[in-house]
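Please, structure for the following, as tokens.
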Amino acid sequence: MDFLRSLGHPEELYPLVRYRLGGCRLVLSKQDRDSMSDSLQTCYKYLDQTSRSFAAATQALDGKLRTAVCILYLVLRALDTVEDDMTISLETRISMLHNFHTYLYQADWRFTESQDKHRVVLQDFPTISREFRNLTVGYQKVIVDICREMGVGMAEFLEKKVESLLDFDKYCQYVCGLWVSGLSQLFSASGLEDASIGEDIRLSKSVGLFLQKTNIIRDYLEDQLEGREFWPREVWRKYSKKLSDLAKPENIVPAVQCLNELVTNALQHVPDVLLYLSRLRNQRVFSFCAILQVMAIATLAAFYNNQQVFKGVVKIRKGQAVKLMMDATNMQAVRAIMYQYVNEISQKIPLTDPSAGRTQNMVSTIRKLSLSSGPPVSHYSSSIYLLCAMVLAALSWQYLNTNKRQLG
């Protein structure tokens, strides 16, 4: 980390580099660990197990705010696990979703019948709820209110499908817009951000929609295998009689056209993302939020016009993720990243694509916003690229050592 200091990079980058060098494990300092209860350390372990990318982003935060964000995530992850687990009866899931916010004050409540991959957050919910009750009253109120509203919304969509684009926005608001609203309220409650950040519900909603729509596009195949459908019927019905038919090789052309329309729909939220980030004043909060947003735009660029979405998992490369985490430290850099990835999308727009005009219009809008504070040229010295090379070299060395038996 002395190398980072010598280059003058912000201190919030240090734990991010430790995280990447640590083999995708959440790395807490000795001082942090010594100040934590065993149950809180367990909560951070669950955070790492259930979302490594989000765990990485939380490394930009510190102190009580980071713990509040961790607990908010785990509570809503438990709620989401109830929604996703098709092995639980519909009646039971609806009841649990409506009442989940009350479990936070029931010391012994747990659910042991889930078969979901993230079931540990339900099985050991007493550990999470204990740390929730250790938070300040202001943080507790935010988490309870968001949990209550999200549970009701999730239950609503267990009994109906995502038909229209309005339904699509409403569902994404329930499962992610509310989460971002909760984060924003935590930022304000911490005193690190102005009260207006937590009060602007519309802006938080739009930022959440951008993230959730990216997730829903990514999870097409996984949701099909699990019997879930979140792509809006209003869109996919233009291209196929059944949503599942988009995965058939003979339907790949209309499938990609459907995909492109949904990516374009997600891009409409980028202006609000830029506005939201521009209002943040605390460097650590900004870095935390910016990492999530630049990962999303890079992922959408990887999805656009990509047949692989219907054949397997599409992810951005680890080295690419490292560079995004290192770069997204201020608004000029974020605008440059947004400019870069919408340019990538622009270069892939097929002339015959039904959404081509709308996509190009969105690209043009984002380009203009990205240029609003000057040209989107990298302001980093060659040292940042040297640092990225060092990180990538370390990751490669780790991979070779981890897999030396197979390689040998």
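Residues 1-25, 375-408 have pLDDT under 50 and may be disordered. The chain has 23 helices and no strands.
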